[in-house]
Amino acid sequence: xxxxxxxxxxxxxxxxxxxxxxxxxxxxxxxxxxxxxxxxxxxxxxxxxxxxxxxxxxxxxxxxxxxxxxxxxxxxxxxxxxxx
Length: 84
Known about the structure:
Belongs to the glutaredoxin family. The chain is an alpha+beta fold. The protein has four helices and four strands, in the order βαβαββαα.
C-alpha cells in the first residue's frame, strides 16, 4: 500500500499524523518539502491547491491534513482504507 505524506520537519500536525500512522502499523513515504523544495509544487498540484502540511495521500487518494486523517479514525473509516 502506498501512503505519502508531504511534511515539514518542525510541523506539529505532521508529527501527529505520523504518530497516528505508526500506531496503526502503517508504513509511509515522507517527503519533506523544506529539504526538497521542488516537491512543494508537486504537493500543491496533487492536493488541489492546498499549501499547508501535512498533505496525506493513501493509495493515490488525497486525504487532506492531519485533522482529516484523525476524522477518518473518528468515523471508523481509516482502518478499512489502510487494509484495502
